């Protein structure tokens, strides 16, 4: 199943920095290209240092049902016959039961991020700290289509019911939409993800160039001009401008660096699976 033309065009344009390049563009291209899974760890309910008891779960905050965008974290439990579940042996009934069990743990106070890393069967949600992403309804990924309405009908920090989607059985926790406007300059190297075949630059050479570009910007050079000259993804023609993008959409390394910035601030050079990034948060 594929995304609509507008969503696919947006995802491909931003693919070298957006986390969606790791999975959602597969819905456009008809193939998967994921990164290695993040380290997993068993989840446990958070406890109070004084009492050892589980901390109370934050109260869900109601929001208007006509909100323009929604952010969600997700856990997927696959079963035989589900999309991308060639190595899964559990049947549908067992998958649904496990999904309900995991949902109950989150409802009781367990961390959905830790559970996703240890128990989600979908590689992207493990890599992205359970992050499904931030979307409007028109661009909601088709492989998660069954979660769209439940998410929109759920309060912030609330949980959807377990629903069946093409990937198996899943539930989501709605998160607060948090948009950040950044620019970046991507310097690729041979062997980086999605680097064109004609890329001959080595990794150390790419890092050195990124550091050189970073130094020029720090010294007062115009970011947009250097992005147009050196940027190696679709944002270069816009001066590296990625526009306001929500949490869960960027690759993890980019997101960690970007959300740590103050308006107008430049991050240290960041490495991602796609190469080296020079990142600036837009002022205001």
Q: Topology of this structure?
A:
Layout: H1 5-13, H2 24-29, E1 70-77, H3 92-107, H4 112-119, H5 123-127, E2 131-135, H6 145-152, E3 163-165, E4 168-175, E5 179-187, H7 203-218, H8 223-230, E6 241-246, H9 252-258, E7 270-272, E8 275-281
Antiparallel strand pairs: 1-2, 1-4, 3-4, 5-6, 5-8, 7-8
Key terms:
284 residues; 29% helix; 2 domains; Chitinase A, domain 3; 4-stranded antiparallel beta sheet; 17% strand; alpha+beta; disordered N terminus
Tell me what the structure shows.
This protein has helices spanning 5-13, 24-29, 92-107, 112-119, 123-127, 145-152, 203-218, 223-230, 252-258; strands at 70-77, 131-135, 163-165, 168-175, 179-187, 241-246, 270-272, 275-281. By secondary structure, the chain is an alpha+beta fold. It has two domains: 66-175, Chitinase A, domain 3 (Roll), CATH 3.10.50.40; 179-281, Chitinase A, domain 3 (Roll), CATH 3.10.50. The strands form two sheets. Strands 2-1-4-3 form a four-stranded antiparallel β-sheet, sandwiched between helices. The chain has a four-stranded antiparallel β-sheet with strand order 6-5-8-7, sandwiched between helices. The protein is elongated and about 60 Å long. The two termini are 39 Å apart. 43% of the residues are buried.
């Amino acid at each position: 199943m594929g995304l609509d033309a507008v969503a696919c065009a947006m995802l491909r344009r931003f693919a070298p920095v957006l986390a969606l390049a790791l999975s959602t563009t597969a819905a456009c291209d008809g193939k998967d290209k994921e990164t290695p899974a993040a380290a997993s760890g068993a989840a446990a309910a958070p406890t109070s240092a004084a009492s050892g008891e589980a901390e109370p779960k934050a109260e869900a905050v109601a929001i208007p049902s006509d909100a323009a965008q929604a952010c969600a974290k997700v856990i997927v439990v696959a079963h035989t016959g589900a999309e991308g579940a060639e190595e899964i042996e559990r049947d549908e009934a067992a998958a649904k039961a496990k999904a309900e069990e995991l949902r109950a743990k989150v409802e009781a106070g367990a961390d959905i991020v830790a559970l996703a890393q240890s128990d989600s069967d979908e590689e992207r949600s493990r890599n992205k700290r359970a992050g499904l992403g931030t979307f409007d309804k028109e661009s909601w990924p088709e492989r998660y289509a069954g979660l769209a309405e439940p998410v929109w009908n759920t309060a912030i920090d609330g949980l959807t019911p377990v629903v069946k989607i093409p990937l198996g059985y899943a539930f989501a926790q709605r998160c607060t939409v948090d948009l950040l406007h950044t620019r970046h300059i991507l310097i690729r190297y041979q062997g980086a993800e999605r680097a064109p075949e004609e890329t001959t630059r080595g990794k150390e050479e790419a890092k050195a160039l990124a550091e050189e570009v970073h130094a020029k910007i720090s010294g007062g050079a115009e970011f947009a001009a250097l992005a147009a000259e050196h940027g190696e993804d679709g944002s270069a023609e816009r001066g590296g401008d990625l526009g306001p993008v929500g949490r869960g959409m960027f690759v993890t390394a980019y997101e960690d660096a970007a959300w740590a910035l103050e308006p107008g601030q430049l991050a240290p050079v960041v490495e991602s699976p796609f190469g080296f990034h020079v990142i600036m948060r837009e002022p205001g």
